[in-house]
Amino acid sequence: MTLLAVAGLEKSFGGVMAISDLSFEVPQGSVYAVIGPNGAGKTTLFNMLCGIYTPSAGGIEFGGESLVGRQPYEVAALGISRTFQNLQVFFNLTVLENVMVGAHLRSHRGLYRAAVRWPGVMAEERQIGEWAREALAFCGLEKLADRGADSLPYGALKRLEIARALAARPRLLLMDEPAAGLNDTETIEMRELIGRISEAGVTVLLVEHNMGLVMGVSDTVLVLDYGSRLAEGPPKQVQNDPQVIAAYLGGEVEHAEH
Amino acid sequence: MRRFYGFFVFAALVLALPLAFPDNYFVTVVGVTIGLHIVLAVSLNLFMGFAGQISLGHAAFFGMGAYTSAILTSRYGIDPWLAMLVALAVVAVIANAIARPVLKLRGHYLAMATLGFGIIVNIVMVQEVDWTGGPDGMSGIPGLSIFGWELDSDLKWYGVVAVVMLASVWISLNIVDSRAGRALRAVHGSEVAAQMMGIDTARAKAQVFVLSALLACFVGSLFAHQQAFVSPDSFNFFFSIELVTMVVLGGLGSTFGAVFGAVVLTLLPELLVVFEDYEVLILGAILMTIMIFLPQGLFVGLVQGARSLLARRRESALVGS
Q1: pLDDT at A26
Q2: What does each C-alpha distance from A137 to A134, A170, B45 come to in angstroms?
């Protein structure tokens, strides 16, 4: 079953085509990777999927609903969550609070009720805390729950963003370069974490430069070049695609195989 | 619950002060002003400290409350409590109307827009002489009574303002650790990430802006009845700046920081009166010194300092044993 369908998608910035005539489908329950050199349009694609940019043309359908023209918070409400390439952690909050914000959509008490401690507010608060601790434990961060987010090392911050996104219980998780800036050990842990997220039933769409991670974890790989599709298929097939090798994977493919 | 220990200690202190010094000018007279300023600072901190926005026009809402109450009670003989409700309704409508367009702006632009709003409101107070009495203000505003209990002494006013003030602090403490409060702080931390977590950031900002305005409006009404006199000078641009200074001085984002800032900035000028001509100069120097050495704010800085000192003590005690 297709969860996310992109058809004829285009985005131009003042005459520069960042994405042109791009179509692909992400099956439910799969790990789908988008790769391509810098400037290929990966982040632009992400920003359109989550409502930050509006496409110049084309359509995006998620679970039968069109995402075009929706605000990011509306996209989130449909069941899409994401992590960011350049960390967007709430550094003014604790680790636990960061993840509690992730559970925003699963709870609903508003400002005025909170202000006067309306009955039910505290119970909901405890529930949010539980959900957040679950998500933290899933990402191996439970011991850091009460630390300020600004005191965490980079690798933990990356996992914190994932925990926050998972606390929303999304159907689709967009991961923007989850392994960027991680060392080899952390990358292996990240690969394992993505595997577990997928096993938990969350569809994953990731953009990544680390070919080892991409080839190891994804079911399907889409190769972007200059904003359009160069190749698509299972990792093995894409790895051996002469067009892809010629274009830019080159030595990277061999690196991925050991 | 641990967070509320501080609140109970503070409440006990506020209520014990007039019992210990019932005739002290600084407690009963300055105390009322401090109480009103605390509500204003705490309400502004909801918008500035939690949500990370800026308003240089907060005094306008304070003034709207005061003038609406003053005009309705003294010119039309309307019951003060009813007038207060009307004031709150008026401010709710105006704050809601300007929230969406104004809060689209960020940083310096938001500062300019709120500044402009504050100035416009102040000009209305000065120019609409038939309604507001113009630059000379309005006197003869009736006092307030609660179910026949006339607020006719400084001490009674202190009691009422203390309760309102403690309620505002309680509200602020409730909000900061709630779902809505975290959403606001998330907007402060990263607006794009907050949106991706499903927070309608425009709505969240507008909501807290309106709540903050309503609190200011309410103490404005109290202020008018307590003073029995209002003039545009109490609600001008400089007072808006003073409120921002209170919030920043105490520690942006901390409820007790706002309380502390309001106390210090209200009390200090009273104490510095002895320096006569140099009063403002010394006040400025003190504020600069505080911000240079405790940029996170007086209250927040002192608490952090005390905590790390205690932690170090405990560590050395452990090493020693």
Answers
A1: 96
A2: 5, 17, 34
More confidently predicted of B160 and B5: B160
Tokens describing residue A180 = 């960027």
Say whether A101 and B182 touch across the interface (CB within 8 A).
Answer: yes
Query: For residue B121, with 0-12 CB atoms within 10 Å meaning exposed, 13-18 middle and 19 or more buried, which class applies?
Result: buried
Instruction: Give B136 to chain A, closest Cα distance, Å.
Output: 38
Is B198's CB within 8 Å of A114's CB?
no
As a whole-number percent, the residues of chain B with pLDDT over 90 amount to 74
Q: Chain B interface, mutation test: which of A47, A73, A121, A175, most B Cβ atoms within 10 Å?
A: A73
Q: For B75-115, how does the pLDDT look when each residue is reduced to its tens digit (9 = 90+)?
A: 999 999 999 999 999 999 999 999 989 999 998 999 999 99
For residue range B240-286, list pLDDT tens digits in order: 999 999 999 999 999 999 999 999 999 998 889 888 888 889 988 98
Q: Binning pLDDT at 50, 70 and 90, where does residue A258 land? A: very low
B194 CB neighbours in chain A (<8 A) are 90, 101
Coil, strand or helix at A183: coil
The Cα–Cα gap between A107 and A105 comes to: 5
- pLDDT at A150 exceeding the cut of 70: yes
Q: What is the CA radius of gyration of chain B?
A: 20
A256 pLDDT more than 70 = no
For A:159-218, CB contacts with B below 8 A are: 164-165, 168
Those residues with Cβ within 8 angstroms of residue A6's Cβ, 6 or more apart along the chain or in another chain: A22, A23, A24, A25, A49, A58, A59, A60, A61
Q: Given this model, what pLDDT does residue B2 score?
A: 61
Within A177-247, residue ranges assigned H as helices are 184-199, 211-217, 235-240, 242-244
- B266 touches B33 (CB < 8 A): yes
Angle at A220 between CA A84 and CA A33, to 5 degrees: 15
Instruction: Verify whether the Cβ–Cβ distance B199 to A110 is below 8 Å.
Output: no
Q: How far is A242 from chain B (nearest CA, A)?
A: 38
Residue A254 has pLDDT above 60, yes or no: no
**Which residues are paired to A94 by β-bridges?**
A148
DSSP H or E stretch at residue A81:
strand A80-82
Instruction: Kindly state the tokens that stand for B130.
Output: 């038939």
Computed over every residue of chain B, the mean pLDDT equals: 92
A126 touches chain B (CB under 8 A): no
pLDDT tops 50 at residue A253: no
User: Given an 8 Å threshold on Cβ–Cβ distance, is B177 in contact with A101?
Assistant: no
Compute the CA torsion angle A198, A201, A204, A209 (nearest 10 deg).
0
Distance separating alpha carbons of residues A211 and A248, to the nearest angstrom: 12
Chain B residues touching A104 at Cβ < 8 A? 179, 182-183, 197-199
Give the per-residue pLDDT at A248.
65
Both tokens assigned to A254: 């061999």
For the four alpha carbons of B114, B119, B125 and B127, in that order, the dihedral sign comes to: negative
Q: Are residues A73 and B195, on separate chains, in Cβ contact within 8 Å? A: yes
